[in-house]
């Protein structure tokens, strides 16, 4: 049985391919073992206690990275080993490992990832070669920090594994786990803040006048902007169905509200340009949006025009036609005697009646338009209220 010692010296640990969930690691894999066949007496060789020889000239444990992601499991062997006169061998080859790491994207970009690297011999079982970690923590003395990730915790464990093919033979491996936290400043400045600004811009669509065509332009512009940012996020995270990032949910939620705002804007503009003579307001619409909702929301100034005012007479009292004609009429025989009427006065009265009816019709049309404006205002107010309420609620829950 051969006893060996393995340790990791980390140099650099960045994510190179987050989309494919591959971690590229630059390490120095320090391995130590003793070969009794390579001992010598320093006195016989001029006091030489250690030499450096090519690694191909001696036996080496066939350590491989089990969770390799690029198909190159072997460690680079084109480096020399340090051989001491006691038979102790120290081999520290450099290696660039590409290992698989499952990325949990739920809290992207405020996420933490737990990645691991599993090392073990490929052909030797635990009865032939025993490997032990030099320490339960890798050496980070030469570690260079990444601009995107920071190492929060790291630890190594030794495992005895029994496989189904060989239930009586143990196999050894050393697994190093690394807990890394993403530095979110880049994504906050370039993704999250623009997203929030575009999202809040959606709520102000209904502050534009109803007859302004810019309402649709603004809504569609915000929708296109959110779509672009959503595509950017899709390019940054793995194509996995295990979880949906909260920022993606928020953007989808905002896009739904933007689409709803476009639909409401179309309805509002359509009703705004309707004529009261061709489209009559349903009674239930008037009951809900003019009589009920304003009272619930304490809009005391939004009162429906009174029907009594619409039916009010043009003249406060009847006029004596004889006084208008300028001619003295015959003395009435009784209370029901007819008055003398001038034909010009008749025409004038008919004209006044026509003007009065026209004014009444215009007043009714104005009241209907005013009612529509009230409904549009209520829809806008309700939309803005619900949008900001759900937006702040989702942000609060995410934080």
TrEMBL record:
Gene Ontology molecular functions: acetylcholine-gated monoatomic cation-selective channel activity; transmembrane signaling receptor activity
Family: Belongs to the ligand-gated ion channel (TC 1.A.9) family.
Cell location: Synaptic cell membrane
Record protein name field: Cholinergic receptor nicotinic alpha 1 subunit
Membrane disposition: Multi-pass membrane protein
GO cellular component, one term: postsynaptic membrane
Organism: Chrysolophus pictus (Golden pheasant)
Signal peptide: 1-21
InterPro entries membership: Neur_chan_lig-bd, Neur_chan_lig-bd_sf, Neur_channel, Neuro-gated_channel_TM_sf, Neuro_actylchol_rec, Neurotrans-gated_channel_TM, Neurotransmitter_ion_chnl_CS, Nicotinic_acetylcholine_rcpt
Highest taxon, organism lineage: Eukaryota
Transmembrane spans: 185-208, 220-238, 250-269, 372-392
Domain (Neurotransmitter-gated ion-channel ligand-binding): residue spans on this chain: 17-183
Keyword set, alphabetical order: Cell membrane, Disulfide bond, Glycoprotein, Ion channel, Ion transport, Ligand-gated ion channel, Membrane, Receptor, Signal, Synapse, Transmembrane, Transmembrane helix, Transport
Domain (Neurotransmitter-gated ion-channel transmembrane): residue spans on this chain: 191-395
Record-linked Pfam families: Neur_chan_LBD, Neur_chan_memb
